[in-house]
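User:
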Amino acid sequence: MKRFLTTALMATAMFGICSNVQAKTLEEILKDKGVITEEDYKEATKHSDLTTYQPGKGITVQTEDGRYKAQVGGRLQARYENLDDDGAEDTESNFRIRRMKFWLQGNVFSKNLTYKWQQNFGGGDSVLEDAYFTYKVANPFSLTVGQFKPAQGRQELTSSGSQLFVDRSLANETFNLGYDLGLQASGQFMDKRLEYRLGVFNGNGPNQSNPDDNHMLVGRLDINPLGAFKMDEPSFNEKKLLVNIGASFATETMSGNDMGEIDGSNDTLDKALNIDDINDPATFTATFGDELDWTLYTLNLHAKYSGLTFGSEYFTLNADPKVGADWDADGYYIQAGYQILPKQLEVAARYSAIESTDAAAYTKFDKNETTLGVNYYFDKHNLKVQADYSMIEDDRSVNSDENLFRLQAQVIF
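Assistant: Predicted structure:
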């Protein structure tokens, strides 16, 4: 027993000593032996930063000439929710992992050929989100092919990790297009004062094929008259006023062949048009006829200055079935925030509403949401805690009003 204890103590001591000894690099050994000079040593080690780690951007590995680069990172959002539903007897109290994303991005062969892969493990499922590559011909023109978010409303295009509130607005969650498969041309002029995107997509959501020859066409134009405007909702003490004016459109012709091929993450199809649950062509034809044409427009105005941020966006959808009259649905949000302590403590308020009460509408809704929030940033979005309280009113249903409290911690690594 004594021998065992003695051996264990010696091994522990040796481990402790060895753990504090840092092995010399080959360059250091050669320099110490006089094989190479001090100048040779500096030349051999000056590119030691080709592998780096930066909080919020992950681990980056690249070649000296920059032609090959790989960046690995991730984002975790851990959330607590308390939902008081007027139509339910009990209050729901719930912990959840809202998002757990890993990404790999970089460039290959050339700095102009970039790629991105992103997988979301939040909610217990593994979902492929981004999987694309982009070739930049010049600033005015790039081509992207694969799976990514079409050029839809600004709030949906802004990362869920860069939102002013715990999550996006009621209007955005009703009229967004989610991820899709397709081809997109994009570019910018005048130092990003003018940006455009135009693409063609399958139109049925992520990881979904297109069963016919009808595609979804999507385009967006952003005007930033005072300089580049990042896809980031809070204002982290910008020294000058920044303004973004943007607009987008999306249009598609749906047929019975699309039924059963739609992924529910396209909320325009799922919530606004309410056709996600139609799983067979016969039901679709009986409801809409041979085809359903839909067109979605968005218009937004955003501004930032010295810790103050403002954002607003309007959505309008028109549905035109072969059978029956066409109908409209719309929604909007308006929000503002101010950092009481620059880059640390922020308060925010938002109002959002959606409406589809047209007599011919296949789905009808009339809801609004008022949200108050507070955020604390330890390292901007890389490490933050957000809390908000939403009062949701449903004017079409009895006992369907809700009060929702959310508390979320985020780390990007």
